[in-house]
Structure formats: C-alpha cells, structure tokens
C-alpha cells in the first residue's frame, strides 16, 4: 500500500476516533461489518445507527402489541358495559302509611245463617250506616263487625266495612274485607271498588287501575271516575317506564350476545389464519405431505398412461407431470396436490402397477373415495379427517407407499 493511501487511512481513523458517528454513514456499512467481524465493539455513538434500527423495530413491535392490548382493553370495556340504572318516576298523588293493626274479626263461613240472624245482621248494618252519616267510624266498624258475624255469607257487609276502613285511611284492613267480599261474590262491584281505592292509597297504581276498571264495568259511579282520573296517569308512567327499561335490558342482552358471536367468529378466523400460515410454512419445507409429494415429477409421462385416466387431472399435480396424464381419470382430480410433489417421485416407480391394481382402480371409480382424494388435494391438512374412513384410508396409504418408492 503506498504512502498516500496509508495517510488517508490514518486520517480516516483519526476522524473516527474524534467523531465515531461517522461510522453511521450507510456507505461505510461494509467497514462497520468488517471491524465487528473481528470482534471489535463499536462505541454507542457509532452504533447508534444499528441501535436505531433495533429501537425502531422494537417500537414497531411494541406499538403493534400495544394496539392489540388497547383493542383487547376496548373489547373488555365494551363487554363490561355499564349496568342500566333506572331513573326515578315522577308520580302524583298522596299515599298513606300502611296500617299494621291486627286483622279485624272475620265471619265463620261454616256457620248456618238463619232468618233471625239475617234480620239481626240488617239491624246492625242500619245502625252502622247511621254512625257513618254522623262521622263516627269506630262505632260503624263495631256495628258492621256484628252484622258480619251474624251473616258471614254477605259480600255486601264486607264491602261496606271495607269502605269505612277507606274513610279511616286503613288500606290494608280495607283490602282484607274486599278480598273476603270477592271470595263470596266474584262480581262484587263494592269489593273491587274498595280494593282499588285501598291500593291507590298504598301507591299500588297499576293494581288499583285494574280493580277500579272492573268495578266501573260492574257498577259505574262518579267516585270511581274521580279516583281513576288521579290514578291512571301514574299507572301509565309506570307502564312506560317499565317498557322502556325492558327494551334497554333486551337491547343490552342482544349486544352482549352479538359481541360473544363476534368474539367466537374472530377466534375461529384467527385459528383458521394460524392453521393456514402453518400449512403454508410447512409446504415450503422439503419432504412430507403438507407440501405435496416431494420433488415433483419433472419430465412427465410422455404419451400419457396406457389405458388412460378418463377425465384427466385438471389442476394436476403442480410442480410435475408436465406431460399430463392423457385420457384422464373418471371425475378427475381437480385441484391436484397443492405445492406439487417436491422432492421427486423415484424414477423406479412402476406406474403400470398402479394402473393394473384392481383395488386402486375400483377405488378411483368410487365417488366417495374420489371426493375424499379431491378434498385432500385441495388441502393436504384434511388428510387427518379421512384416516378413520375404512374405504379411503387404505387407498391414500397405498398411493403414498407407491409414490414413496423403495426404502
């Protein structure tokens, strides 16, 4: 090496010492590779180019992973959809505190009611009605209780006492008497009216509306109309509120089902893509069925195979049999063995034995066997699902053995 070249080299080395980042120049990549091959370790400033590549790669990978994590997190957030919190309903009208007094005396329905008892019951009722007109409700309750005990089969007596309990703002007691009246007479208008009014007092708006509508049909009066006017708006609001949230809950459940369906579909798609990549990866390796029958059949079979395989082999065996199999096989073998037959079929395979093999020729005329062979040709990975078929498995094994040649 002449002196001028040595001087230039020395100057270059001095520049590298003073400024190692010079080595980042892409045109000097050959020099970096050389000195590293000798075991030299570049200073960080000189190796920043390589580091940047590494960092760039890592960032890209981590970004992708982060995106995936974000996506998964988003899915979790979506799956963990907030619970539906029902809003309050704005209702109108006053309600009373439920009365928790001991149950009032009720009549014994098994007692035989005589004419004298009925007359005495009517006398007690008349006394009660006088007390009601005077606003003396406690006395009215006592007289009506006496009338009920004398004639426990009278729905009117229970209905009348229930109406007095309404005036006393004792809805639970009124409901007990109204139920007793309706048990005796299911068409008791007084029973439905008293129970409807009592339920309205307790804020049982929808139940109240039902009872009041029945009472109105049985024996309409203005008092029922006035109560319905106050009660129905609340019942409508409650009904609309319930329908709204039933719809929201149903829609939420449908979204949940749809997310689950999409998740399963995504998992199935991912599994399919993974299997496809594995199949493609294995098909690029020498040997084995996944990539086809090793090596192809270069040179083909000039002149075809005597006797022919009617129908030919459209799609053929990619990678081999360029001369084709003239005449064809019944039904053909469309699709071929993907990837051809890399690795070659030994030249000493006597294909006339295949053509003269009665078992194989009979199998080739069987639609079930041909369908299985076509399925395997389209996707060699499908071979496994046909292994249990006693008609197909022996033929595939026999073909593979014949193509495999001598051990």
From TrEMBL:
Biased composition (Gly residues): 288-306
Domain of life of the organism encoding this protein: Eukaryota
TPR repeat boundaries on the chain: 121-154, 155-188
InterPro entries xrefs: Hip_N, STI1/HOP_DP, STI1_HS-bd, TPR-like_helical_dom_sf, TPR_rpt
Pfam family, one: HipN
Region of interest called Disordered, as start-end residue ranges on this chain: 40-91, 252-306
CDD domains documented for this protein: Hip_N
Residue ranges, compositional bias (Basic and acidic residues): 252-279
Domain spans labelled STI1: 357-396
Ranges of compositional bias, category Acidic residues: 75-91
Keyword list, A-Z: Repeat, TPR repeat
GO molecular function: Hsp70 protein binding; protein dimerization activity
Transmembrane segments: none
Gene Ontology cellular component annotations, sorted alphabetically: histone deacetylase complex
Name of this chain's protein: STI1 domain-containing protein
Lineage: Eukaryota, Viridiplantae, Streptophyta, Embryophyta, Tracheophyta
């Amino acid at each position: 090496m002449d002196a001028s070249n040595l001087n230039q080299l020395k100057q270059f080395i001095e520049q590298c010492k003073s400024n190692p980042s010079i080595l980042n120049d892409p045109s000097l990549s050959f020099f970096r590779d050389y000195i590293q091959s000798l075991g030299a370790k570049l200073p960080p400033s000189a190796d920043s180019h390589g580091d940047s590549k590494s960092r760039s790669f890592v960032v890209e990978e981590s970004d992708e992973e982060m995106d995936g994590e974000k996506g998964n997190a988003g899915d979790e957030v979506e799956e963990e959809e907030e619970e539906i919190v029902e809003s309050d309903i704005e209702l109108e009208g006053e309600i009373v505190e439920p009365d928790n007094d001991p149950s009032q005396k009720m009549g014994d329905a098994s007692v035989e009611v005589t004419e004298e008892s009925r007359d005495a019951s009517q006398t007690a009722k008349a006394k009660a009605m006088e007390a009601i007109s005077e606003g003396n409700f406690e006395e009215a309750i006592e007289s009506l209780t006496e009338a009920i005990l004398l004639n426990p089969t009278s729905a009117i007596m229970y209905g009348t006492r229930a109406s007095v309990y309404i005036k006393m703002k004792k809805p639970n007691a009124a409901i007990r008497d109204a139920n007793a009246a309706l048990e005796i007479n299911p068409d008791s208008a007084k029973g439905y009216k008293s129970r409807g009014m009592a339920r309205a007092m307790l804020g049982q708006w929808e139940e109240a509306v039902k009872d009041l509508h029945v009472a109105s049909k049985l024996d309409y009066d203005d008092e029922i109309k006035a109560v319905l006017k106050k009660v129905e708006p609340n019942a409508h609001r409650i009904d609309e509120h319930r329908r709204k949230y039933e719809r929201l809950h149903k829609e939420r459940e449908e979204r949940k089902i749809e997310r689950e369906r999409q998740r399963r579909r995504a998992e199935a798609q991912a599994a399919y893509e993974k299997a496809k990549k594995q199949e493609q990866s294995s098909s690029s390796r020498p040997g084995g069925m996944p990539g086809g029958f090793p090596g192809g059949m270069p040179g083909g079979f000039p002149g075809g195979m005597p006797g022919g395989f009617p129908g030919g082999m459209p799609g053929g065996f990619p990678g081999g049999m360029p001369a084709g199999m003239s005449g064809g096989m019944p039904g053909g073998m469309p699709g071929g063995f993907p990837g051809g037959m890399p690795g070659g079929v030994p030249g000493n395979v006597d294909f006339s034995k295949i053509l003269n093999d009665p078992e194989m020729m009979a199998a080739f005329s069987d639609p079930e066997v041909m369908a299985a062979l076509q399925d395997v040709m389209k996707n060699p990975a499908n071979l496994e699902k046909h292994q249990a078929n006693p008609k197909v498995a022996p033929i595939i094994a026999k073909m593979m053995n014949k193509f495999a040649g001598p051990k």
